[in-house]
Amino acid sequence: MTFGVGQDRFDEVRRAWIAEHQGWSTVQRRRAEQLGRRLRARQRRRAAAVPDPHDDTVLPSLWLRSAKSPASQAEMTVVLVALLVAPLGWLGGWILKNLLAQLIPATLRGYPVAALLWSGAGLGLLTTLLCQAVYDPAESLRQITLLPWGCLQLAAVPAVAGLYGIAEGWLAVAGSQQWWPLTPPKRPLTPHDAAQILGGYDLTGPGLLDAQRLNEPGERTRP
To answer: In terms of pTM, does the model score above 0.70?
Structure first.
């Protein structure tokens, strides 16, 4: 969530989707609050009747929260396990997520969640088959463990990027469930289209005399 205030990447629909689907997750609540802060900051820049800036409260990062509630403990456990199992894959997925988000809406009209998740599943299956093909029980323990671990990092990159897309509410944006939702090129504006938008030219010039109201027929009375 490192975009500027002025860059609107479907923030409103994503915030509404996250707020509806967050459930018990404080991670999702934080993402919805971040999007809401960006929306209110954008409104304060454009409108005179501005939202109260004191409403821009956001939960601290997961590392700074007190792990007292069951939700915080469960989230911290999942994050620590993922960090230990696939640290390089997580870092690569986060970088890939930011790169793809920068392409919206100029190049992509949605976040390719389906493509990333299926790519992660395909890479996971492919690397598993490769590991089975080159597996040799006579090798050292380091070689036996490093090869599957490296394959896991490779498969985790698109999978983590796809999960980030779901967590940041991109499923609310039309096209994010497609394989590669490209933004259609802008059709050139023809003179006919311009005439329909702006209306035809009024060739009638202004009158020399101001229009006067006609006398209404009826009986005349003395003044």
So the answer is: no
